[in-house]
Amino acid sequence: MRGDNLSEIEVYIVSENEKEFTMESYLEYLQSKKLMGSKCKDCGETYVPSRKLCIKCNSTNLEWIEMSGNGKIAAYSCIGVGTSFMAAKGYSIKNPYCFSVIKLEEGPLISGQLIGVDEKHPDTIKIGTSVKVKFLETDLKGETRVDLGFEPA
User: Which of 28, 67, 75, 117 could disulfide-link 35, Cβ–Cβ 3.0 to 4.6 Å?
Assistant: First the structure.
């Protein structure tokens, strides 16, 4: 027992970089318009979304790092019949949206909506095109949801 009457209760101030490596923490960062990942302190491998365990060297010695948000289109698909969420945003067979896989400068692949391209003419979209992160805000029942998107750089 300590002399300050805290008995067995300890008070911790957790810094932003000490958040647990969970999907919840990753989504909290996105809501704050930060693209965060985890980096293994032992081998340097980087993950987005974050991981608790490095799958390259099996280490649990990871840290949060903020990604640059820059990358290149690795794959994409233009979608005319999507989820009810996307339909509610106005997307349809006559107004398709693009979903993409981006290879970030830091190495990991991440998926997100591709904006600022001609979704109705997917042949104009090129693999390898440089892109940058764009945080997409949607109002849902009075709350703002932030999703990950990318646009040509």
Answer: 67
